[in-house]
Amino acid sequence: SGKLMAETKQTAEEAAEGPTQSATPLPTITTIDAYGPKTIFLAGLPADVREREIHLLFREVPGFTGAQLKTTGNPCCFATFTDHLSAYTAVTRLNGAIFDPARPTEVLRVELARSNTRKPASKRTRDEDAANWHLTS
User: Fold this and answer.
1) What are the φ/ψ torsions at residue 85 (nearest 5 degrees)?
2) Could you tell me the pTM of the whole model?
């Protein structure tokens, strides 16, 4: 509404002073869902992306445990982390970043995955399968 727009506009002087008290605070560890997904989805990758490039991209992100690169169709990647906070940190660091300096207009699109990735059946143990039987339909 017009009233809302008028209330949220800042003058040039206010903008120069920095953010106002009404600025939305960044999430803190207490406001982030501790049980949220530990997996992120990464798109906006070039067609010639390699698995090594993905691992180099994430090597400095705390909590990174591994990635699955999908190269059929539009390349994308699912990366897993030790906890939700690490995954959230990766999203905030990498979303909108330029992956390939030769293509500066193409940026990464990074978001939390809808669910955590599961280990392939060959890598799961019988105990894990028994503990997670209720998660399958």
Assistant:
1) -60, -40
2) 0.61
